[in-house]
Write a structure and sequence with these properties.
Elements (H helix, E strand, L loop, with lengths): L6 H19 L3 H9 L5 H17 L5 H23 L9 H19 L1 H9 L1
Helix pairs in contact: 1-3, 1-5, 3-4, 4-5
Length: 126
């Protein structure tokens, strides 16, 4: 079955991940607040940014997209758990925007993994 359309959720997830890098890499006060609350500022912020950059890049390479999607799922589960248990859904009166973006990335990456699971199984068996 043709899966040429998987570039759409991959691109959506990658754009969201790349857009948030500006805030992490420039030490935006909101980003510093989040990672300070988590107790991992500045290293957690920088490492998370680097991992998001790598994930976004891998999502855009069709042959490796499945691995970017798996990494994206892991990162977004962590982000959502941080929101639910430590940060709250709404941060700095953002109306839950960051939490919503994490949900969108999680959904996009999950779609990629579910639809392209045969590729993952082939690579695991090889």
């Amino acid at each position: 079955m043709k899966k040429n359309w998987l570039w759409i959720p991959a691109l959506v997830a990658a754009v969201i991940l790349l857009q948030t890098l500006y805030f992490k890499f420039t030490a935006h006060p909101d980003s510093v607040l989040i990672f300070s609350t988590l107790g991992v500022e500045p290293y957690g912020r920088i490492i998370t940014g680097v991992l998001e950059l790598i994930t976004a890049a891998i999502l855009l390479i069709p042959r490796w997209r499945i691995f970017g999607a798996l990494n994206g799922i892991g990162m977004m589960v962590g982000a959502m758990a941080s929101h639910l248990f430590l940060l709250g859904i709404e941060i700095q009166n953002d109306g839950g925007l960051l939490f919503g973006l994490a949900l969108v990335v999680l959904a996009c990456c999950s779609i990629i993994v579910v639809v392209d699971r045969e590729q993952l199984l082939k690579r695991v068996r090889a």
